[in-house]
Write a structure and sequence with these properties.
Structural class: alpha+beta
Number of helices: 4
Number of domains: 1
Helix content: 40-55%
Order of helices and strands: HEEHHH
Largest sheet: 2 strands, antiparallel
Strand order of the largest sheet: 1-2
Radius of gyration: 16 Å
């Protein structure tokens, strides 16, 4: 597990912090938003209008997220 978490940390998707003998991993939401934005833009094959709603939800825009039930 620690190998996978270290890979995610190097990719900028999680952040680690030491607490005594434990290492606590937390999500890096900015890094995840960047990855999701890249994947959505890439899946749209150069036509961002195809993925506009998905990009807005990935960017956590409250108005569009509410229409998708993700408040």
């Amino acid at each position: 597990m620690s190998h996978h978490l270290a890979t995610l940390e190097r990719a900028g998707l999680v952040v680690s912090g030491r607490e005594s003998r434990l290492i606590r991993y937390t999500a890096n939401f900015e890094g995840m938003r960047g990855l999701l934005g890249f994947l959505m833009a890439d899946c749209c094959q150069g036509n961002p209008a195809l993925c506009d709603n998905l990009l807005a939800v990935a960017a956590c825009q409250p108005a569009l997220a509410a229409t998708h039930g993700n408040v």
